[in-house]
Amino acid sequence: MNKSTRPTLSDVRKWPATISVAQAASAIGCSKSHLHERIRRGDSPVKTIPLGSRHVIITADLARLLSAEGDAAGEPDGIRGAA
Fold first, then answer.
1. Is residue 9 part of a domain?
2. Which band of pLDDT confidence, cut at 50, 70 and 90, is reported for residue 3?
3. Share of the chain above pLDDT 70, in %
4. Degrees to nearest 5, angle at CA 53 with 47 and 57
5. How far apart, in whole angstroms, are the C-alpha atoms of residue 52 and residue 23?
6. pTM, whole model, 2 decimals?
7. Closest by Cα among 50, 16, 44, 14 to 28
8. pLDDT (tens digit per residue) in 40-55
9. DSSP classification of residue 14
10. What is the per-residue DSSP string for 27-61?
11. pLDDT reading at 15 higher than 50
12. Does any domain span residue 19?
């Protein structure tokens, strides 16, 4: 993966079971602060695990979101409210 490009779904599927908010944000195509805010509000598009004062993202759920992007017509980057 090149630092100037978003990671592909194939890249994401090779990542460890959990990743940082910053890494997930780069894959989704939003800022780290935006994803942190959505996590804080309880409407993150991906499942998170709180670890003390920080959160980690479940990579399998991120891959699910990214694979569904083509099905989310009219919604930017396939981001929907948490189910």
1. no
2. low
3. 77
4. 20
5. 19
6. 0.76
7. 44
8. 999 999 999 999 999 9
9. T
10. HHTS-HHHHHHHHHHT--SS-EEEETTEEEEEHHH
11. yes
12. yes
Element (H, E) at 80: none
- For the chain, the domain total comes to 1
Domain annotation covers residue 57: yes
Q: Going by C-beta distance under 8 Å and a sequence separation of 6 or more, which residues neighbour residue 68?
A: 78
Specify the residue for token string 């959160």. 55
Is residue 33, in this structure, part of any structural domain at all?
Answer: yes
- 6 is written with which tokens? 């978003």
Cβ–Cβ under 8 Å, residues 56 and 18: yes
Domain holding 38, by residue range, is: 14-70
Q: Nearest 5 degrees, angle CA 67-CA 20-CA 73?
A: 25
Look up residue 63 and give its two tokens: 């891959």
